[in-house]
Amino acid sequence: MSVNTKTTQNPLTPVAQKFILHWGEMGTRWGINRTVAQIHALLFISPHPLPADEIAETLAVARSNVSTSLRELQGWRIVRVVHVLGDRRDHFESIKDVWEIFRIVSEERKRREIDPTLRVLDGCVQELKANPQGDAYTRERLTDMREFLTAMSGLFDEAIRMPAGALKGVLKLRGKVVTMLGKRAG
Amino acid sequence: MSVNTKTTQNPLTPVAQKFILHWGEMGTRWGINRTVAQIHALLFISPHPLPADEIAETLAVARSNVSTSLRELQGWRIVRVVHVLGDRRDHFESIKDVWEIFRIVSEERKRREIDPTLRVLDGCVQELKANPQGDAYTRERLTDMREFLTAMSGLFDEAIRMPAGALKGVLKLRGKVVTMLGKRAG
DNA sequence: CGGTCTTTATAGTAATTTCTGAAAAGAGAG
DNA sequence: CTCTCTTTTCAGAAATTACTATAAAGACCG
Fold this sequence. Notes:
homodimer, mainly alpha, 9% strand, DNA-binding
């Protein structure tokens, strides 16, 4: 039998609250549901994996809402289930390495948004090539956009393939590196 | 007196339609209002600046909605007003250089979202330093996150300062460059 | 099995966001 | 100043998105 007091009271510290609320707002600005982002923030700063009911209680949202949101976070691959001895409930933890989170979310957004957009652009450019309906201009613009997104896509691919440690190294070097390259390329 | 036929019929080609609709969807995924994104797409592929009524008619949305959306696009600094001889109406055009659009939007998102988040994180870390409420762990996580966003912020600053041509050069070189740096830093 | 604990699905409700129509405000032209 | 054309504002309507409560499903134990 379990010896856990299933209903751990866990009120947020003012700092935790501030961070979680802000993170929720930022989520909405980037197309992420507020509650989803808040749960992620909570798990990110939590030293232990948390069960869904505790998350619901802490953030004052319905248990079912937490369930759905956790599923979404798992879809983004930045939260996973773990189990705790003597407790039947699922517990959830976030990836803790910010560089790794960035890497994974980048990969996911590329897959979900950039790649499909490239496919649409390819389709558009093809169609315009096949029967130029008089809009050479549109074709030029769409080709530019495709070129841009292809470059971005390649950049993401590179970043995605790197281990988080290397990514961190590269991005923190940027001052010197990018400036230097900028001079070379400009 | 103007000789313009103020109500130019301008139905979208299938390709234009496909692109505009997709761009609208992508907008919503990144926290941009669908109509705002559609208007941007329309202006982006339009060879001429367009007046608000024509945009409204083409996209089948209310004139007032177009007005608001154009204002927002101007807020993002990727659309501007121009005037056409013999026409009292404002006409609008998008920046056409995709690299420049990227540069400007990056700058704006940094200013609106990353910088404020850094301020919040600074505040949080300060408070935790002042009175460590037992959560050394939270402090560690927030410090990591701050470090990450600071690096990103710096990266954006570099990109923002570059002329679009240089930015294009740097990003298209990425294959070799990033790989090389990755090896060095990893 | 039956019983208990937990998670998931979903239909309806609530909240938020987006959009519209109408009216006000602004901007020349004469 | 007045008339006309254009843009902006804004209150309410519509649409979408998010959330909750409840019920069903799943998992484990004895």
